[in-house]
Amino acid sequence: MTVPKFKTYSLSNLYKSPSSSYRPRLRSIKDIQAALEQERLKQEMEEYQRQQQALAELQYLNYLQQQEEAKAAQEERKNAGFFKRTGQTLLDVGGHIAGGASRGIEGVVDYLGGLTGLMSEEQIAHDWTSKNILQPLESQIEHSYIYDLSPTGQTITRGVAEGVGQMLPAIAATYLTGGGSLAYMTTFGLSAAGGATQEALQEGATKKQALAYGALSGLKEIMIEKLLVPAGKN
Measuring CA to CA, how many Å separate 110 from each of 89, 151, 188? Predict the structure, then answer.
């Protein structure tokens, strides 16, 4: 009688067989995952490029619209009468001088209000002059000759007018106190300090930080003014 032969498996074979048969499957899963990740990244990149292209097209359309509006406004100014344009030019300059004077007074009030605690951060950061004087002025000076200048020229011209206006409170304080330089320097320094404090608060500084920055800015302006005044007298 022949004894049937049975295939035997060692423990090592039993351990290795599942592992060896599983390796190709694991590699294929990793390949699929890598391919899916690459496809996802590709789609994200394509979507980003589409968004950037749409943004660029929108910016270009806005640019064209602004150019058309500027051209139409320039044409309208040319067709305006001489007296109308001259009057609005005087209003333009005078309005910015008044805005500068208001900004100088606002700076003094803001800084003293901040030091004494009578004004909150929100009140100091509020740009009263721009909201109540300079912004409303824009609709009244559309035919000003200053608009015929380049953007840089417009900025310089209006900046000089505002600078002259900002000196008026200090000049008035000097006159009221009998011509002493102390009143001029104090008013001028407080005005500069208040403006710097307002700017710092608008940029996110704390009230304490803003007041310190304002003090340094005011002292700097006083030092510059002291250096310039003797030079002007010589």
Answer: 31, 31, 13
Q: What pLDDT, in 10s, does the model give residues 4-36?
A: 554 554 445 544 445 555 555 556 788 888 888
198 closest CA partner among 213, 182, 179: 213
99 lies in a domain? Answer: yes
Half-sphere exposure of 108 (CA within 13 A, CB side): 18
Residue for token pair 């333009």: 92
Full domain range(s) for residue 38: 25-79
pTM tops 0.85: no
E strand segments, 147-224: none
- Are 75 and 179 within one domain? no
What whole-number percentage of the chain has pLDDT above 70?
86
At 154 the three-state DSSP class reads helix
100 and 215 fall within a common domain: yes
**Residue 3 forms part of a structural domain:** no
What one-letter code names the amino acid at 174?
T
- Gap between the Cα atoms of 96 and 98, Å rounded: 5
Q: What is the DSSP string of 32-98?
A: HHHHHHHHHHHHHHHHHHHHHHHHHHHHHHHHHHHHHHHHHHHHHHHHS-HHHHHHHHHHHHHHHHH
CA dihedral 26, 31, 34, 38 (to 10 degrees): -160
Q: In terms of domains, do 43 and 114 share one? A: no
Domain boundary among 34, 51, 79: 79
Side-chain-side CA neighbours of residue 149 (13 Å): 12
